[in-house]
Amino acid sequence: MALLNKFALYWQGRHTILLLFFSHCLAVYPTRENCCVLDERFGEYCPTTCGVYDFYNQYKSGVDRDLNILESQMQQITNRTTTSQQLISNIKSGNQMPQKASQDNYVKKITSMLEDMMRFERIISTREAEIQELQDLLNSNALRITSLKQKAFALDETCKEPCRDTVKISEITGKDCQDVANKGARETGLYYIKPQNAKERFLVLCKIDQYGNGWTVLQRRLDGSVDFRKSWIQYKEGFGYLSPTDTTEFWIGNERMSLITQQTGYPYVLRIELKDWSGVTRYADYSGFKVQPETDKYRLRYSYFVEGEAGDAFDGFDFGDDPSDKTFTFHNGMQFSTWDNDNDKYEGNCAQQDGSGWWMNRCHAGHLNGKYYQNGRYSAQDAGPDGFDNGIIWATWHDRWYSLKETTMQLIPSNRYPIGAGQQQFIKDGKTRGDM
Ligand SMILES: [Ca+2]
């Protein structure tokens, strides 16, 4: 703008001078003839008005042209300046809102980024904990692998020696353990027996006393080392482990029980021997014990309860819950049931509820294949979701929330039934009844 004003003043000044010249020339009416009159205002040696006129005319057109160009350029500059000012004004006013909006966007983006970072930090923290757990597991597994490798190496060393069975099995066999004892066996241990209708011989634990009485052991609970929650086929075939020193748990198998007890000859006496957690031992003896074939679902049969301080739980027990308790819990004549083969007298599934295989009624008063509870006492909460009395129970001795420590089920022919209370009556019965 300052430049523009200078030009304007200059332009104005030039006009003033020219007007002065013209006004003077016009005042003396100069012509080509008289314009050479000296004008005192130019001094004695100054050019004449005509000289100035000529000089002026000589340059006027060029100066006018230059001034026009200059004016045009000035106008262009003025236009451009105005446009620029307008643009600056527009930019200033227009930038404010977008800038605010963009600031908001930046804040949002930064907030979002911070949130992402915090989220990632949390994830990383969690992952680090997981990695640490896995690392611990890896270390633990590495230790186990090392231990197993050492054991494998030790076994490998052992197996370089010719393998020898460390369990001594006698050559003496018979149709049951009494038969084995009759043939001269005098030691408790493992023997092969082959009942009359058995296709193959099989191994059993025979408990033989000094008098030559031979008990065939059918079931053993000792320490809870064997899970008795088994299927029909497992109860049929038997499970667990036999040991000559009577230190392991097993179920000899329903099929074998049936093969042994279905033989002709003296009927068998079943002795149930129990030990509680105080170390007290009691027993219950049943004469005429039989297990029917699988076609009759290995039904339990016996003639009667002989004796035993443990009491006759196989005859049921009045728990006080219902007048029918005793009739719902006796066992004689019951078929065998497992969780996958329900033959009980209950609309539900006793074997499934109690996790065992047994001659279930609705359900039991004596239950020797139940769950093993350390220290005996247990509650409905301990018994699991069903909350039923599922321990190793003999209700005529201890109540149903007391699980026994040890059990043995073993049989002997009635003619070898040991002398004791009720023995005379029993032998008489056994002889008169003959084979059952
Ligand atoms: Ca049922």
Q: What would a concise description of this structure say?
A:
The chain has 436 residues and is of the alpha+beta class.
Give the tags.
binds calcium ion; rod-shaped; disordered C terminus; 13 strands; Gamma Fibrinogen, Chain A, domain 1; two-stranded antiparallel sheet; alpha+beta; eleven-stranded mixed β-sheet
Structure description:
By secondary structure, this protein is of the alpha+beta class. It folds into 3 domains: 2-91, no CATH class; 101-164; 170-416, Alpha-Beta Complex (Gamma Fibrinogen, Chain A, domain 1), CATH 3.90.215.10. Helix content is 41%, strand content 15%. The chain contains 8 helices and 13 strands. It has helices at 2-28, 49-159, 177-182, 232-237, 254-261, 325-329, 350-354, 423-433; strands at residues 169-174, 189-193, 202-208, 214-221, 239-240, 250-251, 268-275, 281-291, 300-301, 304-307, 366-367, 393-394, 406-413. The strands form 2 sheets. Strands 1, 2, 3, 4, 5, 6, 7, 8, 9, 10 and 13 form an 11-stranded mixed β-sheet that branches. A two-stranded antiparallel sheet has the order 11-12. A hairpin with a 5-residue loop joins strand 3 (202-208) and strand 4 (214-221). Helix 1 (2-28) runs antiparallel to helix 2. The model is unreliable at 1-26 and 421-436 (pLDDT under 50). Calcium ion binds next to loops. Calcium ion (CA) is lined by residues 342, 344, 346, 348-349.
